Amino acid sequence: MNWYQLSGEKIMDKLSVKRSVGLTKATAKLRLDKMGPNQLDAKKDRSLFFLFLKQFQDFMVLVLLAATLLSGLLGEYVDAIAIIVIVIINSLLGFFQEQKAEKSLSKLKELSAPVAQVFRDEEWITIPSNQVVPGDIIKMTGGDRIVADIRIIEGESLEIEESALTGESMPISKKTKPILEDGLDYADQKNMAFMGTLVTKGNGIGVVVATGMKTVMGQIADLLVQTKPQPTPLERRLADLGKVLIIVALLLTAFVVLLGVWQGHPMYDMFLAGVSLAVAAIPEGLPAIVTVALSLGVQRMIRKKAIVRKLSAVETLGSTSVICSDKTGTMTENRMTVKQIFTNQQMIHVTGEGHGLTGEFYQGQRQVAGSFVQDILLYGMICNHAELRKKNKQWQIDGDPTEGALLVAANKAKLSEEDRKKFKIIDEVPFDSERKRMTVIVEDQNKQRFAITKGAPDVLLPRVNYIADENGRRPYTSKDQNRIEKTLNDMTGDALRTIAICIKPLTDETTTDSYMVENNVTFVGLVGMIDPPRKEVKKAIRACKDAGIKTVMITGDHAKTAEAIAKQLDLIPLNGRVLSGSQLNQMSEHDLRDQVEDVYVFARVTPAHKLKIVQALQGNGHVVAMTGDGVNDAPAMKASDIGVSMGRSGTDVAKEASALVLLDDNFATIQAAIQEGRNIYENIRKFIRYLLASNVGEILVMLFAILLALPLPLIPVQILWVNLVTDGLPAMALGLDQAEKNVMKTGPRPVKEGIFSRGLGFKIITRGLMIGLVTLVAFVTAYQNTPEHLTYARTIAFTTLVMAQLIHVFDCRSEKSVFARNPLQNLYLIGAVLSSIILLLVVIYYPPLQVVFETVELMMRDWIFILALSAIPTVLFGFTTSKDKSNNKK
Predict the structure, then answer these.
(1) What is the value of pTM for the model shown?
(2) DSSP string, 1-25
(3) CATH class of segment(s) 307-332+534-665
């Protein structure tokens, strides 16, 4: 049995508390000792040292650390120092970018109010909220933050805003009677108040039924603890690449050592040669270059109003195949706005956005004066507790959003607070969820009294006997009834929240009994309002659809309302389905995975439902982005491949659980972020192609030399210099390449697509083979001519390798031929190549570095020979690619 199904008396019996006494202080202390304080558990914050150590978990970084240890054991201290420096730089970059550790639970704690009013030992006392215990009788008033889960037993016009829990900003009118239905969602448990929600109106008394981690909010906190963040596709791909490289390095080392020993060479020399090959096989600069490329992407995304909290999440956006988005405040403006007014038998459409006080009124295509609707809006303004306030040059609503929307519409019709003050409120029959209406009895400046009633049309229309017209009023006919019902159905079909407004003239002798004043009333009209979709969202959804990305609406709102909004946004196709939370409850995990592909709207869902939906989509192979702004979104956001929170309206909990924060709360910003993510991934492929082709060239020149019984053409420190410095700068510049024009016209990358897909592996091997061959030719030529000067031959090989790679970098920018692209489109790359050449010259001609890198000065004839050889791979493949493209066009 659920708490909402029990009467107040039964609840107090179960919790051993009397309404007239409350808990005794002794009983409260015992329960506090047993249950613990009324607060959410928080994990210990991770220390900065722990966060720094976390950066060393990456497989590639572990490989580099192993190489450092091996180099140190062999006495190659320069190599060891060089590797450890690059590892530390990479780790510091990641550390500073991810320094904001997740603080979801501590932020959840901040949602709790500091004090509470409870009834103990026959008196009301104020205590710290963390001392509230189950069984406490507690008071709730407007503006209070609910401190625990409470079963409401008394209430007067009590309304609670539960967006922190359900995602819906519309306050819920609370009731006190038991609800007998089973399996109700939180939003439908209207006799309950939940921790972290806000009292917007009225007051009430309830019995605390759950505290701390036993509350619904506590269950969400527990979900956050249990939900493990998923590794991003980029992290998985780089981990796989690291494993491949280490296997290749180990096999090469073993092969060289065994071959050399078999040929009779000393074990130490062969082991050193094997280590040199291993160093050549591993692109030591790759982790740092990936980190820098992602960081540069982060800076570009900040300019596009998005903040990235986790570096690797940038790339994940590029492979996103499904976006699960909350409706309220994400796809909609989270501002109730009057859109239609039906009065005097005419439908009037209202323009204007949000809480702005400017707008126009139209009957069809014809603009009408605001005076045409002034009567109905004046009544809506008087029968109203909301207030308009200006803050930071923006109008804001204090009170119920529906009543606030009526005030805004009244101001558009040139009504003001002064018009409202001309009427004195004599009495009021407050709104509650059972009556579904509110009535005020007012007196105008002529001392004439009348009643104004506003509420649900299905409740008020049966009480109507008259209908207002230009002459005052006339009898209400069946024809009027049919027309109003048809109009009401049309408005509901447009996802409008509709209220009816009626009046009744009174005499001094008329009783203020609610039955008398709320029956035989005069129908004035209907007002339809909506939380409108954001203007830019429809275009963004269409752009995502063009990019092969499905958008799914997940909301706590009613199914019909959610479906109507989805249709306005062109989100749901003709065969698209809408699924409710109650239907989800009946589904197994397998059933949901089978059906989730056809569902575009999930309505009346709970936090657990959202998590279940995300996991079902991931189970079908999707890369899922989950957007949201409330506490209710946090667990699903954390479990998704990338959580996207709203910067303005989002709770701190949602922001801390997300990987991406949209500063402008604009769903459309996701489109720009996805484009940036796709571009970053393509740029990562470019510099992986560049780096690994260089590594293949290094491996082949070393391997062929060993097989041919030649001295090693390169020493380990030279290889490290090439991998970390000479290759590093151009690789970083490749990360700044502009996006291809068709980047948002292709589908998301398959989840299982490897780094080397789409012919990348073939390009790496063929380009690397050519780079290795020209380097070997340069070495053999120089060594045969001057065998007594091995250092000279190695300098020739070293310089040829560097120049071949620096020319090759221009071939890596895209699939097109190197001759078909303007090299000046990426000035960063030009600068990086020139910088690498300058550094190369320093290594060759600066005496102290000549000692470290074992180089000698080169003559002009050497440079002509080197440049001629270095250009061969890029020129050859440039012509080959151009020829292939021409044949394909034919």
Answers:
(1) 0.66
(2) --GGGS-HHHHHHHTT--TTT-B-H
(3) alpha beta
- Phi, psi (rounded to 5 degrees) for 710: -95, 160
Helix spans in 649-788 (H): 652-657, 667-707, 716-721, 728-734, 760-785
DSSP H/E element including 275: helix 267-281
Helix 667-707, helix 286-303: angle, nearest 10? 160
Q: How far is CA 98 from CA 130, 624, 658, in A?
A: 32, 21, 12
| Residue 654 · residue 633 · CB < 8 Å | yes
Which residue numbers in the chain have pLDDT < 50? 97, 100-113, 882-883, 885-890
CATH code assigned to 337-530: 3.40.1110.10
Q: What is the CATH number of domain 292-303+673-889?
A: 1.20.1110.10
Backbone φ and ψ for 373, nearest 5 degrees, come out as -115, 10
Question: What span, in angstroms and rounded, lies between the C-alpha atoms of 831 and 845?
Answer: 21
> pLDDT tens, 752-765?
777 778 788 889 99
Strands 115-120 and 123-128: antiparallel
* DSSP states along 137-199: EEEEETTPBP-SEEEEEEEEEEEEE-HHHHS--SPEEP--S----SS--GGG-TTEE-TT-EE
Rounded to the nearest 5 degrees, what angle is found at the Cα of 144, between the Cα atoms of 139 and 145? 110
Cα 722 to Cα 145: distance, rounded to the nearest angstrom: 61
Q: What is the pLDDT of residue 112?
A: 39
How many angstroms separate the CA atoms of 366 and 347, rounded? 12
Domains of the chain by residue range: 3-42+106-226, 292-303+673-889, 307-332+534-665, 337-530
Q: Which of 822, 820, 783 is nearest to 800 (CA)?
A: 783
Residue of 333, 287, 334, 337 whose CA lies nearest to 312: 287
Report the sign of the C-alpha dihedral through residues 770, 776, 779, 785, in that order. negative
CATH class of 3-42+106-226: mainly beta
Catalytic residues: 326
What confidence score (pLDDT) does residue 583 get?
93
The pLDDT value recorded for residue 109 is 41
How far apart, in whole angstroms, are the C-alpha atoms of residue 768 and residue 776?
12
